[in-house]
Design a protein that fits this description.
Ribosomal Protein S8, Chain: A, domain 1; alpha+beta; 358 residues; globular
């Protein structure tokens, strides 16, 4: 068990249902209608349940601050502003990103059922949690989900440059199987997501070398000095290229922010971020017999797991396998919350005048 896993194991747990109720109370108190508050709360709690600790309740205080500051619209008119048979562009009207992406994903799946493939882009959206939330929605409907977005803070310079013009710009792909869990890739185009750095700072934990460098190119391991350095892309110039292309597809193509237009919502909670995302749903039935395909995915799973391992490696894992293990464990036993996180949530409850997290 890793140090992080040991730390999590020793922390008090909160049941998922309790977490959902608290998040919904907080969002309602901030002005979000009850139905929307509960929909967002369920997705945020799912992020925590799947091990996305930097994307779940950890973000709640920031979301509330944005709502109260006017950067997030509590009663948006999320609407389609352009569409064709297999595509659509959704204007989120500065809504909470979870609401925008839930609508976009449902629309992409609807189009995929009709024509085999549905591609939906968003603009005027906001941070929407971990990418896998939305690709897994497609996988649950016998589809393949593909998601990419422009991250909410620029901390990555173009390869060889010194100005941070790119973000983590994540990509996710989910492919359903029959007997085995969904194969679910969810990754930043940087060596780490910025939310993990913020989580390290809250926990007073150092960052490992390889996550960030300072402006002299030296390793940066103090998460509280993150503003003084840069994230490192995966695979060097290849990761930079991938971040750039995702930015063009999820930002520029959708009329959303990219490059110098990106608003760091952790620093500026008043300016609408105009976040851009894209979700692609592919109906498996348009290409293959669904049952046969999912059984073949099972075979791929088993072939990968059967690979002999290197010395010191216990097993080969597939993308999403660890997340699924965490999900089952946390659904049964609750989500671990650090003392620092509980303090933040208690202070938030006090400011909002709501019942604290029990």
């Amino acid at each position: 068990m890793t140090e992080t896993a040991n730390t999590a194991a020793s922390q008090p747990r909160v049941e998922i249902a309790t977490l959902i109720e608290f998040i919904a109370r907080a969002l309602e108190a901030a002005g979000i209608p009850p139905g929307d508050a509960r929909r967002v709360a369920a997705l945020m709690a799912e992020a925590d349940a799947r091990g996305g600790d930097a994307h779940g309740v950890f973000r709640l205080a920031q979301y509330v601050k944005q709502i109260q500051s006017g950067a997030v619209n509590p009663r948006p008119n999320i609407r389609i502003v352009g569409q064709k048979a297999g595509t659509a562009l959704v204007d989120g009207d500065n809504a909470l990103g979870h609401l925008v992406m839930k609508r976009a994903t449902e629309l992409a799946m609807e189009k995929a059922r009709q024509g085999g493939v549905g591609w939906v882009g968003t603009r005027r959206s906001n941070h929407a949690g971990p990418a896998q939330l939305y690709t897994r929605m497609a996988a649950a409907q016998n589809m393949i989900g593909i998601y990419f977005c422009v991250g909410n803070a620029n901390l990555l310079p173009p390869w060889g440059g010194t100005e941070a013009l790119l973000s983590t710009n994540p990509i996710a792909i989910a492919v359903p199987a029959s007997r085995h869990p969904v194969i679910s890739l969810d990754m930043a185009t940087t060596n780490t997501a910025f939310g993990k750095i913020r989580l390290k700072a809250q926990r007073n934990e150092p960052m490992p070398e390889g996550w960030m460098i300072d402006k002299e190119g030296k390793p940066l391991t103090d998460p509280k000095r993150a503003s003084e350095g840069f994230l490192l892309p995966i695979g060097g110039a290849k990761g930079y290229g991938l971040a750039l292309m995702i930015g063009l597809l999820a930002g520029t193509l959708n009329g959303a922010a990219f490059g110098r237009d990106v608003v760091d919502y952790t620093v500026d909670s008043k300016t609408p971020s105009n976040a851009g995302q894209s979700i692609l749903a592919v109906d498996i039935a348009a290409f293959a017999d669904v049952k046969t395909f999912k059984e073949q995915v099972d075979e791929v799973w088993e072939v990968m797991k059967s690979s002999p391992t290197l010395p010191g490696v216990d097993e080969v894992r597939l993308p999403g396998e660890h997340s699924e293990q965490i999900y089952r464990e946390r659904m049964a036993h609750g989500v671990p919350l650090s003392d620092g996180q509980r303090k933040v949530l208690d202070e938030l409850a006090d400011r909002l005048g709501i019942l604290p997290l029990q």
